[in-house]
């Protein structure tokens, strides 16, 4: 706004309005690099609207947003006087605002509604012994998280909660990357597998196959490559892999060693409709022990703990859901 010559008092008023509208009061003084995925998305959309533009172009704006933030976005765009172009990989609540919808296929735009996430048919798994048993307090420097959680063998457990509620903080504490006080019983060898939301920064090798070999051997890497369904990308640099497949590379890298506990943080970000079905198959199959059978190591039923803001899809994939709330 400074570059546009907006008077300082007008800037202050617009910022105050944006903070109130998007619920940014608790994070207004935080380092942006320490915000959650959803909080970062809310700040980005709020910043785009601050300049009072005549048009908006939004790239998957609901990815990582909780239900309240999605409702705010729908309401805000419904009042927006200018033109809005939204790119999405699957249908979202923003579709109700659209005057026109197109599908981009092989470089050609064709009038068509966006497909919805493909919901799997699921048979609930019987609960096994606790793999993760947590009743602890942790802090990331911005808030305090009080967490009570059990993740059982053979089950997919959904970790729910609004943006900034501490879902990633909990996973980092389980991994031993944040200090905590209280009870935290989790597997230590092998350490839990971890697929973060910000997957690109986690890749360090020049091919998908070499990425999967980090911390393990070629046999495990080959098994994960085949079981997840990434064979065609084996010799491709991870950052050159399409978004949905790249997300699955991150998941494969987390499960390649066959950990008893698999932690997957917001894996639906960047996924198209077929990618949702692919993810559901991998998460359910891993908890059922399919990957361990592919490795030839016998019958094992790991636990999967994951986060996702799409409540309908999360319910279709998960056996159990646990909601987090933090305290300032």
From TrEMBL:
The ABC transporter domain covers: 129-325
Which keywords does this chain's UniProt record carry? ATP-binding, Nucleotide-binding
Question: Taxonomically, which superkingdom?
Answer: Bacteria
Query: What protein am I looking at?
Result: ABC transporter domain-containing protein
Q: Is this entry keyworded Transcription regulation?
A: no
Q: Which GO terms describe its molecular function?
A: ATP binding; ATP hydrolysis activity; transmembrane transporter activity
- Species whose genome carries this gene: Corynebacterium variabile (strain DSM 44702 / CIP 107183 / JCM 12073 / NCIMB 30131)
Q: Residues of the signal sequence? A: none
A Gene Ontology cellular-component term: plasma membrane
- Keyword Transferase assigned to the entry: answer is no
Matching entries from InterPro entries are given as: AAA+_ATPase, ABC_transporter-like_ATP-bd, ABC_transpr_LolD-like, P-loop_NTPase
């Amino acid at each position: 706004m400074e570059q546009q010559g907006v008077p300082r008092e007008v800037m202050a008023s617009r910022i105050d309005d944006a903070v109130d509208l998007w619920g940014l009061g608790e994070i207004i003084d935080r380092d942006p690099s320490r915000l959650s995925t959803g909080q970062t998305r809310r700040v980005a959309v709020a910043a785009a609207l601050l300049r009072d533009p005549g048009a908006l172009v939004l790239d998957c704006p609901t990815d990582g947003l909780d239900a309240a933030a999605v409702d705010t976005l729908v309401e805000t765009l419904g009042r927006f006087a200018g033109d809005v172009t939204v790119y999405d990989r699957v249908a979202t609540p923003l579709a109700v605002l659209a005057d026109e919808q197109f599908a981009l296929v092989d470089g050609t735009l064709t009038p068509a509604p966006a497909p919805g996430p493909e919901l799997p048919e699921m048979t609930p798994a019987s609960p096994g012994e606790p793999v993760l048993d947590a009743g602890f307090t942790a802090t990331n420097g911005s808030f305090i998280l009080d967490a009570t959680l059990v993740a059982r063998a053979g089950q997919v457990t959904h970790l729910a909660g609004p943006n900034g509620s501490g879902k990633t903080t909990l996973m980092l504490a389980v991994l031993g990357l944040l200090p905590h006080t209280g009870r935290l019983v989790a597997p230590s060898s092998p350490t839990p597998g971890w697929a973060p939301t910000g997957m690109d920064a986690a890749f360090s090798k020049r091919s998908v196959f070499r990425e999967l070999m980090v911390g393990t051997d070629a046999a495990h890497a080959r098994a994960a490559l085949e079981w997840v369904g990434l064979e065609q990308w084996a010799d491709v640099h991870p950052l050159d892999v399409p978004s949905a497949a790249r997300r699955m590379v991150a998941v494969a890298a987390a499960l390649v060693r066959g950990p008893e506990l698999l932690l997957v943080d917001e894996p639906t970000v960047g996924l198209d409709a077929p990618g949702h079905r692919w993810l559901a198959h991998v998460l359910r199959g891993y908890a059922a022990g399919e990957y361990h059978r592919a490795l030839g190591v016998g019958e094992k039923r790991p636990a999967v703990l994951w986060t996702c803001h799409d409540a309908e899809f999360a319910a279709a994939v998960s056996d159990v859901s646990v909601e987090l709330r933090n305290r300032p």
